[in-house]
């Protein structure tokens, strides 16, 4: 999942620079992540000092790319623990046996509210609901409040979305429309979106940072995250009636070379000190209960009360067919 202005962690984690780790190999854990993982240096340093574990990060694209790599390398894992497989792809990772069972003692302190299943193979680290974001200053005909508003001619040629075949937020938005309009209604809805000039791009980076009018583009409606406005100083808004619940998970990889230390790193990701900096560093909501959020989030980035969602099994059974139907409908 891509964040706005996230502090890229490659420079903060051992193994992502030209330097060579001096820590014993037996105490090194490779943490495979999506590209937008970030952690405060002092938080990481404290964990490494107290545990004796050197954390080596391996950034592996967005959530979809990350999941694909983990599946393709499951017989010879590229790391010990992974973070960033989200709820749109979790069912695939679980069905492919990518993750090992581990019931972290930290998981009962909030993460259990968002569990993917009851197997203890994935633990929720953060929540980042996907929603429409708008640039009110550029919307001359009013603001959309719902999915239905997007097909109104007054919003023609104003929406940019990500391709669900290549983008995690794009897939989440598609799933949101399926949850909203049902198996018999979502295709008609997308037909209307296409007729109303929706623009499809490959991923979040292009949609938000190149096409969205609040940055460099011309389109004042974009698929992003409920928390995105927190980075824009009140210039943008999330349309909370268009949100789809997205959770990011972490888990110990099956066949990991350093399983015991990988478990400690997972505990760290769910622990209070890491969770306390999640909002500031990655612009998402921590999964742990009782963690304070930045004061501005109450106004600029409230967590949606009733986001759309679909059962994990339904997504697993239909995801590929839905994406193929979407491709033929919108791009065919």
TrEMBL record:
The keyword Electron transport does not apply. The keyword tRNA-binding does not apply. GO terms for molecular function: thiamine binding; thiamine pyrophosphate binding. Residues 1-18 form the signal peptide. Keywords: Signal. It comes from the Bacteria. GO terms for cellular component: outer membrane-bounded periplasmic space. Coiled coil: none annotated. One of its GO terms (biological process) is thiamine transport. This is Thiamine transport system substrate-binding protein. The lineage of its organism: Bacteria, Bacillati, Actinomycetota, Actinomycetes, Pseudonocardiales.
């Amino acid at each position: 999942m891509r964040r706005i202005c996230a502090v890229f962690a490659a420079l903060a984690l051992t193994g992502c620079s030209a330097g060579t780790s001096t820590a014993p190999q037996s105490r090194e854990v490779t943490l495979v992540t999506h590209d937008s993982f970030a952690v405060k240096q002092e938080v990481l340093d404290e964990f490494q000092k107290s545990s004796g574990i050197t954390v080596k990060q391996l950034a592996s694209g967005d959530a979809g790319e990350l999941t694909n790599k983990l599946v393709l390398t499951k017989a010879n894992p590229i790391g010990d623990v992974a973070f960033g497989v989200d709820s749109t792809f979790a069912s695939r990772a679980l069905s492919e046996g990518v993750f090992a069972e581990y019931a972290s003692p930290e998981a009962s302190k909030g993460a259990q509210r968002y569990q993917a299943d009851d197997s203890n193979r994935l633990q929720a680290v953060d929540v980042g609901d996907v929603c429409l974001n708008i640039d009110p200053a550029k919307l001359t005909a009013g603001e959309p409040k719902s999915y239905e508003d997007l097909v109104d001619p007054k919003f023609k040629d104003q929406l940019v979305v990500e391709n669900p075949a290549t983008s995690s937020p794009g897939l989440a938005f598609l799933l949101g429309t399926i949850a909203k309009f049902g198996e018999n209604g979502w295709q008609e809805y997308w037909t209307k979106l296409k007729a109303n000039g929706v623009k499809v791009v490959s991923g979040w980076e292009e949609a938000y940072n190149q096409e969205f009018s609040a940055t460099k583009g011309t389109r004042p409606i974009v698929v992003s995250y409920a928390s995105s406005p927190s980075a824009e100083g009140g210039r943008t808004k999330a349309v909370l009636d268009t949100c789809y619940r997205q959770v990011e998970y972490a888990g110990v990889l099956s066949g990991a070379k350093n399983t015991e230390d990988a478990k400690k790193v997972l505990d760290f990701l769910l622990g209070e000190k890491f969770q306390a900096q999640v909002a500031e560093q990655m612009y998402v909501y921590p999964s742990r209960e009782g963690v304070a959020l930045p004061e501005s989030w109450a106004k600029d980035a409230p967590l949606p009360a009733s986001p759309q969602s679909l059962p994990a099994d339904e997504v697993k059974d239909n995801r590929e067919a839905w994406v193929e139907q979407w491709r033929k409908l919108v791009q065919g």
